[in-house]
Design goal:
Elements: E1 8-10, E2 19-29, E3 32-41, H1 43-54, E4 61-65, E5 68-71, E6 82-87, H2 91-101
Parallel strand pairs: 1-4
Antiparallel strand pairs: 2-3, 3-6, 4-5
Length: 104
Amino acid sequence: MSGQPIASALTTTSTEQTSERAAALFDFHHQRLYRLVSVQLLPDGAQRMRQATAAHVGRPMAILIDGEVVTAPTVRSAVSDSAWINSDYTQAEAQRIADGIGVR
């Protein structure tokens, strides 16, 4: 990642359902294509995410899938029921993140 210490980590297990929907999308901005992941959280997941992110604004938060850190975006604001995760992802990377945190 960027060499910064990770503030916190969001992990899910195969028995938890924290998201209602996760999708890999793209945005064309300033003549550049950006890939991103859109996440809609269920009420319990939203409450947990709000608590985890509120105290870590401005710091990276690791997202683990199958025990592996797949990305560590900087928390821009406290997250509630929806979030955008964006970086210079390839389509395959964005889809893997969406699949990993999507509905199980």
